[in-house]
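F.,

This is the one I mentioned.
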């Protein structure tokens, strides 16, 4: 499978228990052997295929991406992405959000992963902190992750916490100054997206 070109649409699918759970069309910023960077354009439509366990975004009525968009940095093999967020009318950089998730797997139309609930927030000003431990433990109790998966997720959380404590983060802070191409429209879900 080849790499995507800047501006291409790549579908980010979350796959739960072997079935697509949510689909977000993203714009490719950079794609190569060491890094995949995608951007969720503001007002992008979010897709929720039929699933025995409906996605929480669907239950909350989240049909489109809100805010300034989300930039996501993925390294092959990492069980997390580094997401960047901006805030306020002047699009001021807010910080890095480390989203624990299954290592991405390339597909013909994009890539697959699965959110692992545990996250870390690294604000521009202030100390990092872990998020959503209660949510993660609830998901484990509900069977969203089995015991081996839960143990692996906790190991990743420990590794991320150690990296943040040591200050040995790998990503370039200059990504905080990045801005999307104003000519990029919000991508749409392709025909047949529920079945792909």
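My design for it:
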């Amino acid at each position: 499978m080849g790499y995507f070109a800047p501006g291409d649409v790549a579908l980010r699918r979350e796959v739960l228990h072997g079935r697509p759970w949510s689909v977000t069309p993203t714009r490719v910023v950079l794609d190569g052997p060491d890094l995949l960077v995608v951007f969720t354009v503001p007002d992008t439509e979010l897709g929720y295929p039929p699933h025995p366990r409906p996605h929480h975004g669907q239950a909350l009525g989240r049909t489109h991406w809100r805010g300034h968009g989300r930039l996501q940095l993925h390294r092959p093999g990492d069980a997390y992405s580094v997401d960047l967020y901006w805030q306020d009318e002047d699009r001021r950089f807010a910080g890095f959000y480390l989203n624990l998730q299954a290592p991405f797997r390339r597909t013909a139309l994009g890539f697959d992963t699965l959110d692992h609930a545990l996250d870390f927030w690294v604000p521009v000003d202030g100390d990092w902190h872990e998020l959503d431990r209660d949510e993660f433990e609830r998901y484990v109790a509900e069977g969203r992750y089995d015991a081996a998966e839960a143990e692996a997720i906790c190991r990743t959380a420990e590794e991320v916490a150690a990296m943040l404590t040591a200050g040995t983060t790998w990503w370039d802070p200059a990504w905080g100054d990045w801005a999307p191409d104003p000519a990029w429209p919000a991508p749409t879900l392709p025909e047949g997206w529920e079945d792909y």
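The beta strands are 9-16, 19-31, 36-40, 70-74, 80-87, 92-101, 105-107, 110-113, 115-123, 129-131.

Talk soon.
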